[in-house]
Amino acid sequence: MYGKLGDLSRAMAAFQSIANPNAFSWTILVVAFAQNGHFLEALFFFRKMELQGIKPTIFTCAAVIGIAASSRDLALGRWMHARIVHQGLRINAVVENSLVNMYARCGSLGDAMEVFDAMLDRGVIAWTSLIAGFVQRGDHARALGLFRAMALEGVMPNDITFQCLFYSCSHQGRLREARENFHSMIGDHGVDPSDEHFRCMVDLLARAGKIDRAEELIAAMPYEPVEVAWTMILGACRVHMDVVRANRVAAMALGQPCTDVESPYILLSNMLSDEQELAL
């Protein structure tokens, strides 16, 4: 409980109050530190657990695979995978999903596909992890192909799957496919679009030169537009040399909470410089 709340000192105190901690207790401790980003400490407790003669369970191994995924440590992930196989531990769906995610995030997509293809029950987590891996590599055509294959197998996508889809559609220029799936996400799958989904769609519209529609989408967002959404519009204005719109959008962007207040000014300044060079 304390680990989930991020209170690791209390989690540690609770663990130390156990006279003879078993594999379950050690696993909870490892998971607590891993989930809060303390990977070295989590691995330390994993090793200490072994030194005390307590064999890790398959769930402890899954936690270590999760650490390998989060830290992009392919060597650690492969070591744990080999160890699970060597010890004859029964690989369940949790571990399979963890392995696909780990290999995909570490960029070892051949290994990810090998685990994925061997799975008897491939759910949304495995599909999404694989799709995200190809998006990370920049192979957007393969990512879109996997999304379509996932739909054919009757697996329902989640919010992260759609985020990967929209990102790939943006880089492939597939506006129509993205728009259809955006509506399907809401109407057919009951997934409420997040600000990230909206930003992907704004980026896609802006890249396609449909700046009016991109602005309309920002206005319709149920969230306060963040600086990056306005920056996408400004980037499109620069490509199309729409100075009037850029001035207006820059003013609106600077009225929003920004992570980088200077960026709208920089884009606008660059755009005006481009216009002056063209005039010469």
Automatic annotation (TrEMBL):
InterPro entries registered for this protein in UniProt: PPR_At4g14850-like_plant, PPR_rpt, TPR-like_helical_dom_sf
Protein name (database record): Pentacotripeptide-repeat region of PRORP domain-containing protein
PANTHER family membership: DYW DOMAIN-CONTAINING PROTEIN (PTHR47926:SF533), PENTATRICOPEPTIDE REPEAT-CONTAINING PROTEIN (PTHR47926)
Keywords carried by this UniProt record: Repeat
NCBIfam families hit by this protein: PPR
Gene Ontology molecular function: any one: RNA binding
Ranges for the PPR repeats: 22-56, 92-126
Superkingdom: Eukaryota
GO annotation terms (biological process): RNA modification; system development
SUPFAM superfamilies per the UniProt record, alphabetical: TPR-like
